[in-house]
Amino acid sequence: LLREELNPTREAIWSRVHFDTVWNKWVISILVPLYDSDEYLGFTGTDVELKTLLSHLPAPDSRQGFLIFDQQGHIISAPNLRFKRSENSVTSGKAISIPALNNV
Fold first, then answer.
1. What separation in angstroms does the CA of 34 have from each of 39, 68, 69, 81?
2. Going by DSSP bridges, is the β-strand pair 39-49/68-69 parallel, antiparallel, or unpaired?
3. pTM
4. What is the pLDDT of residues 18-69, one digit of tens each?
5. Which residues of 55-84 are buried (b: 16+ CB within 10 A; e: fewer)?
6. Residue 103 to residues 44, 91, 97: CA-CA distances in angstroms?
7. How many angstroms separate the CA atoms of 45 and 33, rounded?
8. How far apart are CA 98 and CA 87, in angstroms?
9. What top-level branch of life does the organism fall under (predicted)?
10. Please, how many CA atoms are within 13 Å of residue 78, restricted to the half-sphere of its CB?
11. Counting CB atoms within 10 angstroms of each CB, which of 17, 90, 93, 97 has the fewest?
12. What are the pLDDT digits (tens) for 80-101?
């Protein structure tokens, strides 16, 4: 994924939101290429739990709100929006342990 020739801009790469079956959590991953001067050494990365990421967003109120979409246009978070969970393809049929996502 982060071979030098696949990332000529040397930018960090964010993954799609995905369910980590080892930790049983929804996460997003970030991978960062490592260089010493101009020599490619490899990459490092980490997973950020979606629940943690969402906890840093401002709380919506009756005057304002927000939607968060992934690159495919699926809704990740929509605190003030109500519709059937079965219509949200982000969940892929998995149980969601993040209360904020149960409302999308």
1. 9, 30, 29, 40
2. unpaired
3. 0.58
4. 899 999 999 999 999 999 999 999 999 999 998 888 888 777 776 777 777 7
5. eeeeeeeeeeeeebeeeeeebbbbbeeeee
6. 34, 12, 11
7. 9
8. 17
9. Bacteria
10. 16
11. 93
12. 665 555 555 555 555 556 665 5
Q: Is residue 75 very low, low, confident or very high in pLDDT (cuts 50, 70, 90)?
A: confident
Question: Does residue 2 contact residue 31 with C-beta atoms inside 8 Å?
Answer: yes
Q: Which residue has the tokens 């079956």?
A: 21
Report the C-alpha gap between 60 and 78 in whole angstroms: 9
State both tokens at 31.
Answer: 């991978």
Q: What is the DSSP string of the chain?
A: ---GGG-TT---EE---EEETTTTEEEEEEEEEEEETTEEEEEEEEEEEHHHHHHTSPPP-SS----EE-TTS-EEE-TT----GGG-TTSTT-----HHHHT-
